[in-house]
Design brief:
- The structure is a single chain.
- Helices cover 0% and strands 41% of the residues.
- With 156 residues, it is an all-beta fold.
- Strands 6-5-9-2-11 form a 5-stranded antiparallel β-sheet, with no helix packed on it. A 4-stranded antiparallel β-sheet has the order 1-10-4-7, with no helix packed on it.
Length: 156
């Protein structure tokens, strides 16, 4: 099989945009959509970075990449590995070996917290723009999925 297209830099990010607060204290499920570019070989997925505003009270956090089902998060495609320590700031969640994403496809980064104590809060931005340098065709959705719509979560 032909390998998926891999790059040495982020394919798309909005972490460079202003952080306008944290969301999630009342929402244990959150998801952010993103759309891949048009490379016919697809793309190798190595990791996804998420910006935590308030760290969770336990390690009971699951981050998955999901298909899009009529504009909402659908079936799980990959379960990511959490950083060694879940703390405030940008954390890298590792994809399984050989994880690939199809071209011109919308996926969701889905976050589920099942622990007790402090619920995590995720940084969001009021900007609907991505950082400069994104790969052609890639985008981050301008809304997120939770119990009510809100501004985009900050991801890379």
């Amino acid at each position: 099989a032909t390998p998926a297209h891999a790059l040495d830099s982020a394919l798309v990010s909005n972490l460079g945009k202003s952080s306008d607060g944290g969301s999630g204290a009342m929402h244990v499920l959150q998801a952010q959509s993103f759309t891949t570019g048009g490379n016919s070989l697809g793309y190798a997925l190595e990791s996804i970075d998420l910006d935590i505003h308030t760290a969770p009270g336990s390690d009971d956090l699951t981050v998955t990449v999901r298909e899009s089902d009529s504009g909402d998060p659908g079936d799980t495609v990959y379960t990511l590995t959490n950083p060694a320590v879940l703390s405030s700031g940008v954390g890298t969640y590792l994809a399984p070996d050989d994880a690939t994403l199809d071209p011109n496809t919308t996926y969701w980064v889905h976050i589920h917290y099942s622990g007790g104590g402090t619920k995590p809060r995720w940084r969001y931005t009021n900007s609907n723009n991505e950082d400069s340098g994104k790969h052609p065709g890639w985008s981050i959705g301008n809304d997120r999925s939770r119990s009510m719509p809100g501004f985009p979560l900050q991801v890379r």
